[in-house]
Amino acid sequence: MFTQFKYWKPFVGPFDPCPPIRIKSYSTPPQLYMTFQPPGLQQFAPTEALMHGTLWPQLYSPYPDPHKGGHPHG
Predict the structure, then answer these.
(1) Structure pTM?
(2) How far apart are CA 33 and CA 65, in angstroms?
């Protein structure tokens, strides 16, 4: 199983002028893990597909990172 969000702890210098960001993250979208689109993939209903931005649940990627409480830079 893969995760769409990767995390790392950057170096925090003792003289950094800004408050440190202790854990940073980036997203890896699901299409990076799917070499080809197999036939017969499950599909969202049309209204759900519009809300998710894709017809296929396997290609849905939430934004922002759900582990950060909904703030893309937090």
Answers:
(1) 0.57
(2) 18
pLDDT tens for 29-73 read 888 888 888 889 999 999 999 999 899 998 888 776 666 664 444
Distances (CA, A) of 38 to 5, 33, 44, 56, 59: 24, 13, 16, 11, 12
Query: pLDDT tens digits, residue range 4-27?
Result: 888 899 999 999 899 998 988 888
What are the sequence ranges of the domains in the chain? 5-59
Q: Where are the beta strands (DSSP E) in the chain?
A: 5-8, 24-27
